[in-house]
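USER:
Working in pairs, take the chain set out below, taking as long as you need, and write a paragraph about the fold.
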Amino acid sequence: MRALRAIEAAGENISLAPGEKVHVGVDVHKRSYHVAVWTAERGWIATWVQPADDQLLLSRLGPIRRSVAHIV
């Protein structure tokens, strides 16, 4: 099992290889969202906890939005 890397800063980007697709899991709670990003090629590539704010989540996922294959 691979270790998870935490991404804390909202401006920190997730680096993807050309054509790499990501799957995003969001565990929604009243006060926070727990987010995980996974690729078939590399497994878990990022996890973070953020305030329960839809716009913040969209902002953080914005740089990889074209590579998102699935959000759960």
In short: The chain has one helix and four strands. The mean pLDDT is 85. Strands lie at 22-28, 32-39, 43-51, 68-71. The CA atoms of residues 30 and 52 lie 7 Å apart.
